[in-house]
Here is the input.
Amino acid sequence: MPELPEVENVRLTLLPLVQGQLVRKVTICRPDIVTGLATPLSLLQGKVIGDVIRHGKQLAIIADDPSQTTINVHLGMTGRLMGISCPFPKHCHVRWQLSNTDTLGFIDPRRFGGLWTFGALADLQDQRWSKLGPDALVITPDQLAQGLAKTKRSLKAALLDQNLLAGLGNIYVDELCFNAKIRPDRIACALTVDDCRLLVREMRKLLKTAIKRGGSTLRDYVMVNGQSGKFQNLHKVYGRAGNNCVRCKTPLHGQLLAGRTTVFCPHCQQ
Ligand SMILES: [Zn+2]
Here is the structure.
């Protein structure tokens, strides 16, 4: 599932393609992929695209009109926003023909992702994004400490909880705990303010590096231009259970935590 660095790369590659473009025509092949009004107008037909923003793992495509008509995009497991060339690619549920002759498609074979339409950006923020925790790139150590203090779950489970912190998934939580040298099975509320400072610092460093490398492509994720990410080649623990730790050569330990495969170094991470 695409996490913050992958979704940010979708945003960065989408923005130059769509910003300032008039949406000439919207074709809805599967209305059930849309929550809210599923009309060409609600999906920005006839409107100029003003901006594309992100919170956690979600995107919003915003019209340059007075109320800022908004499409909220969740890529789910296999969702892609892509420039498309053939008229009806497989699993393309909605497509937008733009005034620059580009066509953008929302493609999602497994349909765990979706689109939500809002008459105004403020409605998206009230109804959906206000329920999410702070974005992982901007959360402060105090905000993280407050979130972790409320839960006796493992640190892994807490960092995966989008209502506490928006943007991380299985890959980046494991990588973050390794970089911060903290065991993912520690009880969240037992972490100190210093631990939270360290986690926030390492989180920003990790996410910025991953964004620069185009994110991690494991299965389905590609950028809007069809390119894959390269950060998967730099994973230190994710997917490496049983291999040696890159720091101390101890075999990495894999276990199920919060229902997810979790990999850490039993020597480096205390
Ligand atoms: Zn180690």
About this structure: The chain is about 25% helix and 20% strand. The two ends are 28 Å apart (CA to CA). The longest strand covers residues 49-55. Residues 245, 247-248, 250, 265, 267-268 surround zinc ion (CB under 6 Å).
